Amino acid sequence: MTREEMIDRLRKAMSDSSTEDVDWDSVTEATEIGSLGFDSLSILDLIYEIQREFKIKFAAEEIVKVRTVGHLLDFLQARV
């Protein structure tokens, strides 16, 4: 899977778990996850959606220090 395919799937997971009005197509690797409006409940939904979309398991604590979409992609690439 290419990095572009991964970011497309990640955008889908984010849009499925967020209640914010975000232009998901404009989300890039440089986008800070905190700027996307996730709160403590929706971030848990995001983790679930990521695990479902990428068919991987990980603890929420493993991504606490992830700040940008690019860093999240790095994390995912290491596990897919």
Which features characterize this protein?
80 residues; 3 helices; Non-ribosomal Peptide Synthetase Peptidyl Carrier Protein, Chain A; 0% strand; mainly alpha
Describe this structure in words.
This protein has a single domain, classed as ACP-like (Non-ribosomal Peptide Synthetase Peptidyl Carrier Protein, Chain A, Orthogonal Bundle). The chain has helices at residues 3-17, 40-54, 69-77. It is mostly helical and 80 residues long. The termini are close together. The mean pLDDT is 92.
CATH architecture: Orthogonal Bundle
Write down how many β-strands occur, each being a DSSP E stretch of 2 or more residues: 0
* Contiguous helical run count: 3
Termini separation = 9 Å
Number of domains: 1
Which radius of gyration do the C-alpha atoms yield? 11 Å
SSE blueprint:
Elements (H helix, E strand, L loop, with lengths): L2 H15 L22 H15 L14 H9 L3
Helix pairs in contact: 1-2
Q: Could you give a short description of this structure?
A:
With 80 residues, the protein is mainly α. Helix content is 49%, strand content 0%. The chain has 3 helices and no strands.
